[in-house]
Amino acid sequence: MAVAVSSASRRPTKFGSSSISVVDNVEVQELAKTYIDFHKALLGYNDFAGLVESSGSAANFRALEIAKSVSRKSKVLCTELSHLSITKACQQLGLEPVILRLNDSLQVGEEGLKEIVDKEGDSFAAVVSTYGTTQLGNIELLGHHPLVQNLRQRGTLLHLDAAYGGTLFAYSNFSLDKFPNLDTITLDPHKFIGKPGCSLLLGRADLLEKNRINVGYYTQSPYTLNTTLSIEPIVAWHDLHQKGLARLQNYADGCISSAKRIAERLKANGIELVSEQQLGIVAIKLASLETVNEVKEQLLQEGISVGKVQLPAAQGIRVVCTARVPERY
Fold first, then answer.
1. CA-to-CA distance for 73 and 67, rounded, in angstroms?
2. Spatial distance between the Cα atoms of 98 and 77, rounded to a whole number of angstroms
């Protein structure tokens, strides 16, 4: 295994056109296994299985596909801050998303959750809780709730979409909220290495192993269900990993500490935030969508690219502190 990592670092072009799916390429399979095993061990999920997916969205789709197959239920419980990939996956899979509204603390309210669980609890194939939402970077506590954990005992799977926040949790030295007891989890280390195509779906081994899609004409790798998926992003990750975990920790800590400094300076100058900064995103509240567009365009002209916040209760812009170089700026 160490030889494979070393050779990948010395000769990255050797694997440039290789696919994880080619099961008889031993070195490529070792690279994929190392990548999965590292994250399993780091998060304490050594008894889980892992699959490499092309994106966080693809990993979320796979999780809901498995949940539908295992539970034979028809609905997915999520929130208004869930990633777009969740509702899109529901549409493709014939599942009905039940979207919970958030309270002033941007968490699911007790009464609303109890009402929907009492009414439709036995219909949920999965509950999706997000660790690091796209718009605000906040950590949803839905998965920790006793009502959700009780649903797991009744056959509902809990999926944690930690595509953004999961690697920050895994790599960082900051004390962050722990994960709930879960069945599947999405991670996307692409947020650090800047190469799409290395997302991970980790999950209970019985779920991932029993729900493999058999492709009769193709011998599948145990590390991905895709029939073509480049190893190159994982090679790039190994280049960082070989320099030591401290390098990844520095990246993660830098994202969070930069966001903390920005949030503190903004608040010190009387600028209101949509929510308290938790990870690497600072969401700034503005008066109207018109103001959002004006500020966003002005910053863009100055070479600063920011995202929008568009929620029923608030709108604004978001600053994302990232370890990778943004595509445009």
1. 8
2. 5
